[in-house]
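Priority: medium. Attachment 1 of 2:
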């Protein structure tokens, strides 16, 4: 029998205190992710700090990072990565929203700026390669998040936060909240929803939250992290850092609804009334067209030629669905005409579809009129099957010259990595070939009509995802890069 267990250890008191704080924190948030004020019995220390004229809740500093409940918004989809940037371990997670290009663009700029600053210490700039094969860290040195905290009506509130842990284990937290009008796309910092004269009151209220801050209120910056609750309360997270080993933030001050409302501008009142109603449903973007910034996330585009086939293409769709991967199918018109239901299954699953000619000839052996006939014939067959014509094409065998390029009338998507699956017909050969040759931004060539190709897809996809790749469609891969008709593309260009 052991003489001493965890309940008798010297650190038991500290451990029990942490458990107690976490239990208290569980009361702070309800299941919908909205902050609520718990009933907390005051201790002599907190009673001495509290002002009798203000509602105030002081939480232990570490909880501002520990308590982070998920909150979903209509059309929102999470993205994350782990990277080694400038010698630092970085964990990032954020949420894009369908059909909000202004927010998504703002988010991309903020993320790249944050990652570039982390990379600058090593004299470089962030690259998606830094997120490949990054081991799961025991503890991050830089955590970057941008997530929704509240949604109602046509408005969403987001919080951006950077938690920076120094070599001495001192943490500094910088956070800011924004509001987005999902109808107009208007994006503004939450502090701008207040009347200018209310900012000093907010600053004063926030500066009373951190412990042992004696500097005059005017020297403290106005906090940038403000969140309204559905009941109209205003919660302010302090921007101040604290001692070594603890998270900056000091706590949360809560301003009652009546007082908070008196601080709002007219725009703030409109926004608050929206946030007090259910979030409006919004149209969703097809999976294969959803915004993903491949300058941030290491992306690759798996492409499959020559289908569709009722058996092998259907098997591949199941694998893609189960792994959460997106892909692009360059279909021949003859097969689309023969198997229209399978072509529709590809489109309905959200994957991209491209033109691979009608009968799969060497286009370089045809006159311009023959090239155009092949392209038009495939367009017509695919349109009859899925309801629209593809905007991209791939010449069979990769055969394209100046005549072909001028005749096709679409961007030509070739490849950076040729799996040679059609040649080896052996997953033990083509899977390692792809894994060895691939780089972020590459287009990979395979064929969805060969059973041996399908046999290797589960291993290939899960291996790529394990390396850190996000598998996207060709339109997603090249988003932000104009694709011109007649031009050839093999991989996404690097960030300028």
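Attachment 2 of 2:
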């Amino acid at each position: 029998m052991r003489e001493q267990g965890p309940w008798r250890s010297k650190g038991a008191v500290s451990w029990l205190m942490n458990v107690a704080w976490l239990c208290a924190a569980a009361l702070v948030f309800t299941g919908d992710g909205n902050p609520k004020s718990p009933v907390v019995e005051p201790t002599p220390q907190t009673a001495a700090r509290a002002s009798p004229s203000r509602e105030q809740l002081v939480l232990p500093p570490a909880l501002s990072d520990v308590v982070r409940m998920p909150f979903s918004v209509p059309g929102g989809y999470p993205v994350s990565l782990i990277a080694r940037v400038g010698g630092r371990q970085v964990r990032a997670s954020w949420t894009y929203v369908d059909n909000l290009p202004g927010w998504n663009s703002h988010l991309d700029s903020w993320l790249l700026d944050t990652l570039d600053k982390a990379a600058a210490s090593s004299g470089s700039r962030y690259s998606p390669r830094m997120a490949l094969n990054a081991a799961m860290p025991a503890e991050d040195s830089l955590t970057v998040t941008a997530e929704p905290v509240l949604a109602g009506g046509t408005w969403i509130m987001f919080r951006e936060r950077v938690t920076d842990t120094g070599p001495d284990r001192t943490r500094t937290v910088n956070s800011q909240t924004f509001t987005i009008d999902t109808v107009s796309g208007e994006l503004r910092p939450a502090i701008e929803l207040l009347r200018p004269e209310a900012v000093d009151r907010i600053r004063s209220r926030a500066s009373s939250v951190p412990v042992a801050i004696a500097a005059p209120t005017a020297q403290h910056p106005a906090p940038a992290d403000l969140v309204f609750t559905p009941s109209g309360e205003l919660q302010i997270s302090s921007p101040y850092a604290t001692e070594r080993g603890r998270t900056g933030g000091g706590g949360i001050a809560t301003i009652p609804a009546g007082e908070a409302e008196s601080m709002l501008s007219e725009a703030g009142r409109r926004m608050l009334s929206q946030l007090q109603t259910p979030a409006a449903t919004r149209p969703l973007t097809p999976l294969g067209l959803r915004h993903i910034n491949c300058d941030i996330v290491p992306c690759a585009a798996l492409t499959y030629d020559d289908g569709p086939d009722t058996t092998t293409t259907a098997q591949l769709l199941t694998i893609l669905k189960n792994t959460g991967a997106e892909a692009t199918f360059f279909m021949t018109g003859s097969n689309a005409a023969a198997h229209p239901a399978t072509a529709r299954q590809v489109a309905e699953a959200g994957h991209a579809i491209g033109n691979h000619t009608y009968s799969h000839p060497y286009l370089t052996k045809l006159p311009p009129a023959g090239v155009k006939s092949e392209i038009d014939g495939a367009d017509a067959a695919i349109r009859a099957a899925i309801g629209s014509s593809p905007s991209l094409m791939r010449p069979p065998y990769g055969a394209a010259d100046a005549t072909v390029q001028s005749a096709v009338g679409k961007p030509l998507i070739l490849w950076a990595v040729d799996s040679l699956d059609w040649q080896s017909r052996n997953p033990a050969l083509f899977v390692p070939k792809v894994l060895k040759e691939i780089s972020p931004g590459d287009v990979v060539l395979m064929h969805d009509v060969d059973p041996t190709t399908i046999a290797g897809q589960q291993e290939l996809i899960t291996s790529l995802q394990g390396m850190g790749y996000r598998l996207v469609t060709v339109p997603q891969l090249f988003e932000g890069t104009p694709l011109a008709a007649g031009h050839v593309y093999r991989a996404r260009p690097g960030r300028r």
